[in-house]
Amino acid sequence: MLTKRIIACLDIRDGRTVKGTNFVGIKDAGCPLELSEKYVREGIDELVFLDITATHEGRKTLPELVSRIASRINIPFTVGGGISSVDDVARLLDNGADKISINSSAFREPKLIGAIASRFGSQCVVVAIDGRCENEDWNVYLNGGRVATDTDLFEWAYRAQECGAGEILFTSMDHDGVRTGYACDALARLASQLSIPVIASGGAGCKEDFREVFERGKADAALAAGIFHFGEIRIPELKTYLSGTGISVRTC
Q1: Does residue 53 fall inside a structural domain?
Q2: Domain count of the chain?
Q3: pTM as predicted
Q4: C-alpha to C-alpha distance for 61 and 204, rounded to whole angstroms
Q5: Among 201, 229, 235, 237, which is disulfide-ready with 29 (CB 3.0 to 4.6 Å)?
Q6: Smallest Cα–Cα separation from 250: which of 104, 44, 89?
Q7: Picking from 4-13, 20-29, 95-104, which range would have the lowest pLDDT averaged per residue?
Q8: What would the pLDDT profile of 66-102 be if each residue is shown by its tens digit?
Q9: Can 209 be counted among the known catalytic residues?
Q10: Which residue out of 51, 130, 176, 220 is catalytically annotated?
Q11: Of 11, 51, 88, 209, catalytic
Q12: What are the C-alpha distances in Å from 3 to residues 6, 33, 51, 221?
């Protein structure tokens, strides 16, 4: 059985970790450096750092903050936000990122996925997709959920894979911050259609939600933010619970 990964997400705005609900209602969640170190101590498998306003504000992710975080951790570290070129990727990797996450720029210029994969390897490329279910259809949203498209989630995910993506990070905007569980049906459909790992994001509220997303949602990894940031679930306890249900996870 393949080992499932638990990922903590640091949504960054103005140098601080923040968390919202359904992509709005943003509130402060702490210092990203302190949170990163805490998660490493607790045994998190990976960290994702997302500069959530970089694309909307038309600027680049701050490489100095990436460097400061990378210098304090020893686990895989994915960075996203405002990445629009191979040079942007090189700069972030040089500052300590292991992987990069591209969302709106990948959608608008799919060739960027292949260009990054060709230079750095597909394992470096995480294509993030924000989606919302409307009239039973899942549609893609851009610019941190601010811009709607009429593109089908599943069609875009498959195209991203064919362009060279190494992983898909799917966030359900309907489930984000609500804490009623992940979008397991959509995740299971993605997993059945793709040959690359699928990371689930949006909806974790309790330990049982992680079990469900791995069993019913067929996710390869589960990402969460608020429940970790505010101490509602501790990583060691979550991993002990999952292991006890027969789900293979890395020990802390």
Answers
A1: yes
A2: 1
A3: 0.91
A4: 26
A5: 229
A6: 44
A7: 20-29
A8: 898 899 999 999 999 889 999 999 999 999 999 999 9
A9: no
A10: 130
A11: 11
A12: 10, 27, 28, 9
How far is Cα 83 from Cα 81, in angstroms, rounded to an integer?
6
Does a structural domain hold residue 252?
no
Q: What is the largest CA-CA distance in the chain?
A: 46
Give the residues across from 129 on adjacent strands: 170
Residue 11 is among the residues annotated as catalytic for this protein: yes
Per the listing, tokens 């990445």 go with: 83
- What is the domain-level CATH number for residue 174? 3.20.20.70
Query: What's the chain's length in residues?
Result: 252
CA 168 to chain CA centroid, nearest Å: 8
Token pair for residue 59?
């600027």
Query: Is the residue at 117 inside a domain?
Result: yes
> Considering the domain boundaries, does residue 167 fall inside one?
yes
CB-based burial, 35-45: b 16+ in 10 Å, e otherwise: bbebbbebbbb
CB atoms near residue 173 (< 10 Å):
20
pLDDT digits (tens, 9 = 90+) for 116-164: 999 999 999 999 999 999 888 999 999 878 899 999 999 999 999 999 9
Q: For the residues of 134-202, what is the DSSP string, one character each?
A: ETTEEEEEETTTTEEEEEEHHHHHHHHHHHT-SEEEEEETTTTTT-S---HHHHHHHHHH-SS-EEEES
